[in-house]
Automatic annotation (TrEMBL):
<dbReference type="InterPro" id="IPR003660">
    <property type="entry name" value="HAMP_dom"/>
</dbReference>
<dbReference type="Pfam" id="PF07228">
    <property type="entry name" value="SpoIIE"/>
</dbReference>
<dbReference type="GO" id="GO:0016020">
    <property type="term" value="C:membrane"/>
</dbReference>
<protein>
    <submittedName>
        <fullName>Sigma-B regulation protein RsbU (Phosphoserine phosphatase)</fullName>
    </submittedName>
</protein>
<keyword id="KW-0175">Coiled coil</keyword>
<dbReference type="InterPro" id="IPR036457">
    <property type="entry name" value="PPM-type-like_dom_sf"/>
</dbReference>
<dbReference type="InterPro" id="IPR001932">
    <property type="entry name" value="PPM-type_phosphatase-like_dom"/>
</dbReference>
<dbReference type="InterPro" id="IPR052016">
    <property type="entry name" value="Bact_Sigma-Reg"/>
</dbReference>
<dbReference type="Pfam" id="PF00672">
    <property type="entry name" value="HAMP"/>
</dbReference>
<feature type="coiled-coil region">
    <location>
        <begin position="61"/>
        <end position="88"/>
    </location>
</feature>
<dbReference type="GO" id="GO:0007165">
    <property type="term" value="P:signal transduction"/>
</dbReference>
<dbReference type="GO" id="GO:0016791">
    <property type="term" value="F:phosphatase activity"/>
</dbReference>
<keyword id="KW-0378">Hydrolase</keyword>
<feature type="domain" description="HAMP">
    <location>
        <begin position="414"/>
        <end position="466"/>
    </location>
</feature>
Amino acid sequence: MKIRFKLLLLLLLVSIVPLVAVQTGVLESLHSLSEEIGGEVRSELVNKSSVELKRLVEDHARVLSKQRKIVELNLQQLSAELTAWIEEGTMFVPPEILIGISAQDAESENERLQQKYGQPDFVMHGESGINFNYLGYDSGRHGTADRIIPQRSTDVIFPLFKTIENRNPDLALWIEANFISGESLTYPARYTGMSMGRMMNAPQPQAASIIPENLLPAWSLPKKDPVTGRTVLTASLAIIVHGNIVGSVSIDVPLGTLLSGNNHLNMFSHNIDSMLVRIESNTDSTNDVEIVAKEISGTGSKTMMHMWEPPTVQTMLSSSDSVLFSKFKDLLKERKSGVISMPYKGRDSIWAFSSPDKRGISLVLILLHDDVVKPAENAKKFVTSVISQQYRNTSLVLVAVVLLVSVIAFMLSRRFTKNILILAKGVKRIASGDFAAKVEISNADEIGELADNFNKMVPSLQEHIEIKSALDVAMEVQTNLLPQSSPELSGYDIHGESRYCDELGGDYFDYIKPYADQDNIRFAVGDVSGHGVSAAMLMGSIRGYVRARSLSRGTLGEVLIDVNKLVAEDTCKTAQFMTMVMVELDPLKNELRWVRAGHDPALIFDPGQDDFTQLEGDGIALGAVAEATYAESCCFDLDAGQILILGTDGIWEASNGDGEFFGKERLWRVVNSAKDLPAKVLVKTIFDAVHTFTGRSKQEDDLTVVVVKRNN
């Protein structure tokens, strides 16, 4: 990257980064504040709505209970008067307190009833309809002997039915009396218009009430009234004549009237689910919550008419939170009121519930959290829009700053980069091999100092390149001094290799054939003290001495005695030396002879043993003492499967980061694990194990290994 761009980046970092950091911090704080306030408001709205919803559902349950008691009180009065009427016959006179006259005039009363039942108060001949001025009577098609109702006296009891409806216009839809004789009385009367007479034989608007088996009022589940289409609850009570139950009285109560208090739930939301439920026991001792009626959304203005409907098929209430729903069912079974927050149709909701009576029917109101927290969400959206606007304003400022800084950076960069471009041209000339390149910069600043150092650097660089070229040549020469291939010997697998830590090294190995008329072969491994050029030069000299002396016959000891004298003359002033081990293999006898010159013993690996066998022997390093003597050691038989290993101390003295040595025990484990592999692979395995152990990318010492395997 050019300096002008670096300068641009620097100026941008200095000017923009603080601005961005501060602005980002402010905006992040606003975001956090918005989230925190929104969360608090949402939580507060949910809690407040839960409390209010619970209070409303409990208040409504109390109102519902009172309305139930009013209906039951009217049933008791109606049952008592019907009992007296049946027992006294035509002599019965209803008490004035129960048949008070309506305060409204006849025209207003008829208009009210027509609106309530949705029908006119008279019909033409042959048409069916509802008559509000008569009490409907159905004989049940039984003979007169079986009748319970006094004959031709329904006019006497009609005011009683009329008064009950008039005093409870919202609670009483149909008032009916059913008898075991099959007879029934219904108000208002439904008839087929043969005449305007009082004999009504048309079917009644609902099924006959079940005659209770006890003296307590009974309530039915919600059902659909076939005439008005409204959902009703039927309350029934027995009629007892002379101690015997002869029938029952019933009042159909519009469910919408009982639950009319739900209208003010709109203060929370128009999407509240209102329902009546009951616990349904299963055969497996578990319980389900059955919906017996549910408020549905109407069209137009919201009224209670036709708003509550019983399900057409059995419908169960459920929630995805089984733990909370189980708690909800337990509270319903105990007929308790409460409020619980749990999912409804996959969305978090508030469930408020209460049991208005002991019939096992509970009122449940379900309000979605999303509807409750709309104000909080709207506030959050407003804050988010303000933050977004602030982001846009900040972006415009940043763009202006970037443009201004870019102009300044390019203007300043031309002044600063002029001399740098001169230096760059000089570097390119050097890279192309022109070491006569110089730069002419007279500035007294850092650029001028850099130019002076550049001019001084060129000669030194040329000298280092020449040295590097010489080292490359020397490395190639030394590499060629080492064996380029392994000897082939029947019954044996042989491989040797050296890896230097620098370009040049002091490790040495060689294969020597001492006798032209024999297959004997000598393996020499040596290690010159130190590294680098001096070690490599001494290694090359000793290699030449060993090869030259091996042309003449003589034992291994005699060879090293003569070589040592020559080496001592070369190292008398440098204090260098070389350790060496030389092993001669006689393939006819499978016999080994060896001599040591201060080097670690050669190792014999026997698969049948648990350790190496070392080829011991005395001898001082070559070049240390000119008159040193070396004796050949004999003999060791190399059996089938055994492996001869010659190496330098770079193998077992390699250390890891903890200062621990690789050691010959690890070497034994490596050889043991790879003993069946070819000699070349075994050598590579040893090198890889050392490299893995040290954990370094560059080795610290030269590594040399020669492996001689006698095949099975």
